[in-house]
């Protein structure tokens, strides 16, 4: 397990995700101040793939550079705001999600063993 | 800008991403110890969408519960390993990516103004 590589890839994914959130933020801000540009950015974003954040930004810079610069600023700001909370949120988030998955699975196993105990006679009627 | 909501969504995205990395890790481990199951998990993963980690796990639990439990353990382990590095990696990662985008854009702007200064005669000398 190459943890260093995984950490690097994880941070790349995070950056792309915050780019996407920055784009959404700017679209929402423009909807208040400049609706036609908000619409333009919305359409641009549905045309260009924002999953690869860096490529998306390069494309945006070619068309509307001030929006490009604005999104850089917003994503850096978002990163500053969320960075310190991430370790704790990730840890408790995964623990919670794991607990829930285990719980659900244990419930399913109990239900299964209730109805299909091996060697027991088939249920009397049940036509479906 | 709803930072709390963005932080929560970011941590959800992270959990899904680490689930995907856990799946890849288990596929690689099985390739060493039990190639047919590795292949099975690979095929299952290309069939089910791992982008929604929780749904993927629910589907996996219905088919091969021991693999489900194993992936829960691995993703929790991965989270433990990367969590503390994330704030720093995210900050420097975004700063680096932003610097690079700004640099590229400034280069493009310089090139454009070199060739298309409106109405002005071509520059006499100055090559840099």
From TrEMBL, chains A, B:
Xref: SUPFAM superfamilies: RbcX-like
Keyword field: Bacterial microcompartment, Carbon dioxide fixation, Carboxysome, Chaperone, Cytoplasm, Photosynthesis
UniProt KW Phosphoprotein keyword: no
Main location: other
Domain of life of the native organism: Bacteria
Gene3D superfamilies, alphabetized: Chaperonin-like RbcX (1.10.1200.210)
Cell compartments where the protein resides: Carboxysome; Cytoplasm
A molecular function GO annotation: protein folding chaperone
Gene Ontology biological-process entries: carbon fixation; photosynthesis; ribulose bisphosphate carboxylase complex assembly
GO cellular component: carboxysome; cytoplasm
Location of region: Disordered: 101-128
Function, as annotated: An RbcL-specific chaperone. The central cleft of the RbcX homodimer (RbcX2) binds the C-terminus of an RbcL monomer, stabilizing the C-terminus and probably preventing its reassociation with chaperonin GroEL-ES. At the same time the peripheral region of RbcX2 binds a second RbcL monomer, bridging the RbcL homodimers in the correct orientation. The RbcX2(2)-bound RbcL dimers then assemble into the RbcL8 core (RbcL8-(RbcX2)8). RbcS binding triggers the release of RbcX2.
Subunit structure: Homodimer. Interacts with the exposed C-terminal peptide of RbcL via its central cleft, contacts a second RbcL monomer via its peripheral polar surface.
Matching PANTHER family: CHAPERONIN-LIKE RBCX PROTEIN 1, CHLOROPLASTIC, RUBISCO CHAPERONE RBCX
Protein family (similarity comment): Belongs to the RbcX family.
Protein name listed in UniProt: RuBisCO chaperone RbcX
Species name: Parathermosynechococcus lividus PCC 6715
Taxon lineage: Bacteria, Bacillati, Cyanobacteriota, Cyanophyceae, Acaryochloridales
């Amino acid at each position: 397990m190459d943890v260093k590589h995984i950490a690097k890839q994880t941070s790349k994914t995070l950056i792309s995700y915050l780019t996407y959130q920055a784009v959404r933020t700017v679209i929402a801000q423009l909807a208040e101040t400049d609706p036609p540009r908000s619409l333009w950015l919305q359409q641009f974003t549905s045309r260009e793939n924002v999953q690869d954040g860096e490529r998306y930004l390069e494309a945006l810079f070619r068309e509307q550079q001030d929006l490009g610069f604005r999104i850089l600023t917003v994503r850096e700001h978002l990163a500053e705001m969320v960075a310190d909370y991430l370790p704790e949120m990730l840890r408790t988030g995964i623990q919670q999600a794991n607990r829930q998955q285990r719980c659900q699975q244990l419930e399913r196993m109990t239900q299964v063993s209730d109805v299909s105990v091996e060697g027991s006679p088939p249920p009397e009627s049940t036509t479906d």
